[in-house]
Please model this.
Amino acid sequence: MDRTSHLEELLSLVALTHSFQQIRRRIYATGEDRFENDAEHSFQLAFIAWYLIEKEGLALSKEKALTYALCHDIVEVYAGDVFFHRSAEEEQKKIDLEREAANKLSEIYPDFPALTDTLRAYETKSDPESKFIYALDKLLPIFNIMLDQGRSWQLNDVSLEKLYEGKHAKIAHDPIIQEYFILIVAVLKKNPNLFIKKD
Model:
């Protein structure tokens, strides 16, 4: 068994995580003058998913949910990140680019088929865990931006109406996450200043 080739493959995967860390999202890192990156977003998503599964006593596989959370955006290394509020045409372009990126990952890492299998299952939302992570992925930025005094909404000229329109159908994939969405929208309605650009 040639361990040298194993080392090279591992180094390549570690380099992929570095590339993942370089993908900047359209959301400020809370309290910082920089955008958050995909690696910290994915860690937070996994951590909060773990908490909610425990707190809510959800009949979900933690392993599946955490695996989805950790890799759900890895395709953005090749496809890039896009803004949540987009046209049907932009949404289709995103889907196509991410499908191509998943195929590329499959070619580059043939000894890691679980990665592309997981990405495809997440894309099709084929089980409750993928639906839960998909919905939570749409909810979590709302919490982050609210805790950051709305800076990302102000930067991107997002109103509460635009936020609701872009999120509610996607978050509806999971009933527990939808409950939290309804609660946070009620809070945001009482805080319109979060959506007003500061001079």
Q: What stands out?
A: The domain at 28-195 is CATH 1.10.3210.10 (Hypothetical protein af1432). The first strand starts at residue 24 and ends at 28.
